[in-house]
User: Fold these one by one.
Assistant:
Number 1:
Amino acid sequence: MVGTIIKGIGGFYYVKVSDKIYECKARGVFRKEKITPMIGDKVKIELNGEKGSIAEILPRSSFLVRPPVANVDTMMLVVAASSPEPNLFLIDKMLTYAEMNNILPAVCINKTDLERREDIKKTYQKAGYEVFSVSAESGEGIGEILAYLQGKTTAFAGLSGVGKSSLLSIVTEDKLEVGSVSEKIQRGKHTTRHVELFELKSGGFVLDTPGFSSLEIEGIAADDLWRFFPEMSDSQNKCRFRSCSHINEPDCFVKGKVDDGEMALSRYESYVQMYSKLKSVKEWEKK
C-alpha cells in the first residue's frame, strides 16, 4: 500500500492511505542506512493488523531541512500588510530558499482589512510570483487561496504574527492554536509545536512551519544566486562581462532592468545583500 506520512511522533509515523490513517514504525534497515522518513514522504507500507511498517520511501520531488518535510509543491509566504510591518528582505530570502529547494513560492498579503499594500503586490507580481491579497479577519480572498491550494502540498511560511495559523485554521476548517502579537516587539509568539500535514476537503495538504527569522541562504556559490531570482533569469550572457556579478560592473543588463523599473529596487538590494553574504563565506566553510 502506498500512502503519505502526515505526522511523526516519538518514532511512530502516521501514514494516510485513501481515507484511513495507519500507525507505522520505520524498518530497521532505514536506521542502518541512516535514512530518516520525513513528513510528506510517499511511502510503501506493509500491514500487520491495524498497524504497519514503512517498507520503502519513494523518490522525493523536493525536501526542506527546516522544517524537515518532503514533497512540498508550493510555499505560501505570508506577510502582514501591517502589524508587524513587512520585512521585504526576509520575504526575498524565503522566496530564494524555496526556489533553491525546487519549490514554487507564492506571496500572500494578509490583514488587508488594515491596509492594502499595493506596493508589495506590484513588487512580487513584477518578479513573476502569484500574489494573493487576503484578510483572515474579513474573509476577503480566501476563495482564491483555496483554489490555489487544491491538489498541492503547500507549506505556509513567514514571521510569527503575520497570520499563518489564522489562515490555516480557515482553510483546514480546524482551530489551530493562534499566538497573539506583542505590541512591544511586534512579533507573534511561536505556536507551531511539530510538523504535521493537514488535509484539505478539496484535496491536497497544508502545513505550518516555524518562524523563518533566522533563515540563512547557504550551500550555493554567490555567482549562482541570480538563478533563483526569476526576474534575473534572462540575464545570462547579456551583460558586457561574462562573469558579471550584477553589482559593480558597467553595462550590466540586470542593473538596466532596475533602472527601467522592470525589477523592483528592493528585490535588487536583497540580491546584493545575499550575494555579499555568500561571497564572504570562505571555501573551507562551504564544505
Note: The chain is about 25% helix and 25% strand.
Number 2:
Amino acid sequence: MNRFTVLGSDIASLWAKYGGMYLGGMRRTLILALIGTAIGCLIGFICGILQTIPVNKNDNIVKKIVLGIIRVILRIYIEVFRGTPMILQAVFVFYGLPYFTNNILRFSDKWLVSIIVVSINTGAYMAESVRGGIISVDPGQTEGAMAIGMNHFQTMTSVVMPQAIRNIMPQIGNNFIINVKDTSVMFIIGFSDFFAIHKSVSGATFLYFPSATVEMAGYLCMTLISSLILRWVEKKMEGSSDYELVAADSLTMTAGTYNISKPKDTQNNDVKTIDREGR
C-alpha cells in the first residue's frame, strides 16, 4: 500500500477520535496568543514612550535622575527577556519563583503563568519596535505640535503615536504570529495548548508523524488566516489610495452668478474717455 495512503488513513483515524481535542488545543493557543500579544503591546507602548521622553539641559535634576533609573531598568528588562528563550522564562516563573521565595510566590494557575510569560516576552520585543516607530516620525511633526502650544503628552497622543502605530502595525502582526507558534513551549508547565495535545495523542497512539502532520497543518492554517486578517487591518489603516484633485474652491461662487458694478463716477469717466478717443 502507498505510504501516502497509509498516512492519510492514520490522519483520518486520529481526527475522527481526537479531533475535538485538537480543536480545543487550537482554541487555547489562539486565545493565549491574542491575550499575550495585546498585553505585551501595552507593555511595549509604555516602555517605548518612557524611553523616548526628551531630556534637556535645563530640566530639573530630579527628572533626569528618575528617567535615568527608569531607562536602566527598562534596558535590563528588554535585554534579559529578548536574550533568553521563552521556555526557560516559563520554567523560571512557574518553578523558580517558588524555589527562591520558599513557596511564597507560587502560581498554580497555568493559564495565568502562560499569559504572564507571553505578555512580558512580547513586551520586551514591542518596546524596541515602539521606540523605533516613534523615532521614525518626522521631527517636524513634533516641532509643529510644540509651535502651536501642545505639551509633550498632547504631542505624543495626538500627533506622534497615531503615525507610529501605523508604522509598527506589521511588527505587531508579526509578534502575534510568532506567539501563535511559540506558545507551544508552554507544554513544559503542563499548559494544554495545541502542541501539548499532539504530545498526548502521539503518546497514546504511537502515531507520532501523523499527529505531527495534523499539528503542522493546524499551525499553518492559524498563521495564514491571521496573516490575511492583519493585512486587511493594515490596508484599512492606510486609507483609500484613490483621491481627486480639487479643481475649484467649492466656497467660491460660479462665474456668471454675480456682477461687479463700477461706481457711477468711474463709469461716466470711462464713457467720456471713450468719447474723446472716438473723436
Note: The radius of gyration is 32 Å.
Number 3:
Amino acid sequence: MDNEWMGRYRPLVAALVRHVNVISKLNEEFCIQIGDGVFIDRPSWQIIEYFVEHSDNTYNMIDISTKLGIPQSSFSKKVKQLKEYGFLDRFIAEGNKKEIFIRPTEKAIHFYRQNTSDHVSKHFLPFFEKLDRFSDEEIAVMTEAIENLTDNCKAKEQPKPPKMKYIKLD
C-alpha cells in the first residue's frame, strides 16, 4: 500500500492517534476522590458529566451508553454504583415501567461543578481558542467526520473460526 494514503490529512490523523493514546493512558491513571477512600474512574466521571450536562433531556440508558462509547454492561454497572454513591436517581415514566431514566442528584451537580473549573481552564479553553477560527458549519463538519471515523473504527464482530475435526494419532 502506498505510504502516502493519508495525503494532506497526515498531520490531523497523527494528532488524533496521539490524542487517543494520551487519553488512554490518562484513563488508566484517572481517579477522583468522592469520599473517604472512595474514588471514581474516568468512565464514571463521564457518566456524571453527561447526566449533569443533559439533565433537561430524556434519554434511555442504551442511547447514553452508545453516545459515550461505554459498553452497555459496564455502563449499567457504573450507573448502579453511582446511584449507590448518591450521584444518580432512577425514574420510570408514568405508564411505562420498563424504560428507566436517570437524573443527576444535587450532590452530583455540586460535585461536577466543584471538579470542572480547573479541568476546563487547563484543557478545554485553549482547545476552544484554537477552534474559534472555524465557523459553526466547519465545526459541525469536523464533528461529523470524527463521529464517522469513530463509528467506522468500532470493533466489528469477528467471524468464528471453523470447527476443527480432530484425527487421533497412533
Note: The longest helix spans residues 106-131.
